[in-house]
Amino acid sequence: MNTFMAKNKDVKRNWFIVDADNKIMGRMLTTVSRVLQGKHKPEYTPHVDVGDFVIITNASKVKLTGKKMKEKIHYYVTGFQSGLRKRMVGKTLETSPEKVFHRSVKRMLPRSRLGKDMLSKLKVYAGAEHPHQAQQPKELIIRN
Asked: Which of 9, 24, 82, 120 places its Cα 20 to 30 Å from the Cα of 52?
């Protein structure tokens, strides 16, 4: 009896779509990160990227629990001296919600080249429109 190990050439990738309208962000993104890693498949192999593509629409209409919209702070560095800047998550969600989603999912994935490949399969859009109709994405069910 042999242990099955997936190969890159044998992986079949599916496309899933998630509507983020009135969904809780953290609970939704944990499911999304599992799909990007491929942990929902029986042929999951830790050292091979077996995950699927995920499209998130209506990212600007997502909900955060508690006081996170007003009190949670994202820090970033400009690259210059004294270049540490901070911004409220609510403000970032208004201007560019894609950044908040990418940052959150990136921290849930492995910190390696494999994690970067997984993150490239995430497509986030602020509105309901997306250019991936030809891939015929299936609805990804997320329980709150």
From this structure: 24
